[in-house]
Amino acid sequence: MTPQRRQTGQLYFAQQLRQRKSLARAVGSKVAAVEAVTHSRKDFPLKLRLITAAAALLALAGAANAEEHIVQLLTKGDKGSMVFQPNFMKAAPGDTVKFVPGDKTHNVETIQGMIPDGAQEFKGKVGETITVTLTQEGVYGVKCNPHYGLGMVALIVIGKPVNLDAAQAVKQVGKARTVFTELFSQVTKTN
Ligand SMILES: [Cu+2]
Fold it and tell me: Which of 16, 57, 128, 136 could form a cystine bridge with 119, CB 3.0-4.6 A?
């Protein structure tokens, strides 16, 4: 190895060390756990081990922070009939929401125009439990299709309500109009 290459190598490892130290500060003790796993595989090249450790850390950090929320779809709820319970929720990007029908008459689906740009629409079958991961910031308006006109709707706020105006501009059906008016007022009250 020429002196110059050795120096480059030393620089590389100094950089790696700095990166690992800042990563360690950011994620704390998880570094030790991940490194213990990757270092036990001696046949792994060092660079690959570092990359693997960084990827595992990111996955760990994401999984540790994401929460699962449960929403029931009920014929008779605490606050009346044909309801999502709860029908208003604030959550963080990356959180999951599990929609659980109390009986086989309800479904959940996104309402057109009531999800953030870049977010994916979702639609469960009647009686089906579905779990969705909401990553885009904004409000998500959902309905039970058979009971939409009876006001069976819900609003989920992920991070900042960036698409609030667009969602509020969507024309609603029957009792869903009054329910959404109340749900939107909770967004402005709590933000
Ligand atoms: Cu329903």
Answer: 136
